[in-house]
Amino acid sequence: MFYRPEDGHGLPHNPFNAIVTPRPIGWISSRGADGSNNLAPYSFFNAVAYVPPQVMFSSTSGKSDRAEGKDSVANILETGVFCVNIVEYAMRDKMNATSQTLPKDTDEFVHAGIEMAEAETINCGYVAKAPAVLECKLTQVVTLPGEMNRLVLGEVTGIHIRDDTLVNGRFDITTFQPLSRLGYRDYTVVKDLFELTRPDD
Question: CA-based Rg of the chain, rounded to a whole angstrom?
């Protein structure tokens, strides 16, 4: 089949969400200027540069109690910082609990029963037991076509790595099985690895 997005796909569910997969999940923690904490998962997330290390996530909808997108975006615009918490399979239910649309003054750490720790380089909380955490300083927010589509870019200023994920000097994702988003309501975990050597190596 072929379709133009502006004409619709004619299927029961949007296939676009299932085409670009798997997508890593950025579990974004942020803090508002008033000190309120927020934690929410975003599957439009990735790393975008090595030096300096940089990441991005995209928010694609708004909330009735926020003038500027979701709580994460509003908080980051206020304070200029955020954390990316890597989601392991064991935390899937807690991650899912933080995806619920809640009033802006609700602390998702408390709502989902998640232990919070304080970042080292920025004023922000993070998921204390996450396999890895990236502390980030906002570099820019890009307004994308469409209502409330916001691309958030940040430079990584600090990195936490849980000790049990380091095996022979390497960050071993099989020790915690990162959760990834597929299409629709589907998720997967990474369990199996293989190596490919680039022709230039």
Answer: 17
- What are the C-alpha distances in Å from 174 to residues 2, 85, 129, 131, 167? 38, 17, 16, 11, 10
Task: Assess contact for 109 and 31: CB atoms under 8 A.
Answer: no
pTM score: 0.94
Give the Å distances, CA to CA, from 104 to 18, 35, 168. 30, 12, 43
| Single-letter residue type at 30 | S
For residue 157, with 0-12 CB atoms within 10 Å meaning exposed, 13-18 middle and 19 or more buried, which class applies?
middle
What domains can you pick out in the chain, each with its CATH number? 24-181 (2.30.110.10)
- Cβ atoms 181, 43 nearer than 8 A: yes
Whether the CB-CB separation of 42 and 151 falls below 8 Å is answered with: no
Q: What mean pLDDT value characterizes the chain? A: 95
**pLDDT tens digits, 84-128:** 999 999 999 999 999 998 988 899 999 999 999 999 999 999 999
* pLDDT at 66 exceeding the cut of 80: no
Residue 198, burial from CB neighbour count under 10 angstroms (0-12, 13-18, 19+)? exposed
Interatomic CA distance for residues 88 and 96, integer angstroms: 12
Q: For residues 82 and 76, is the Cβ–Cβ distance under 8 A?
A: yes
Q: Is 134 helix (H, G, I), strand (E, B) or coil?
A: strand
CB 21 within 8 A of CB 15: no
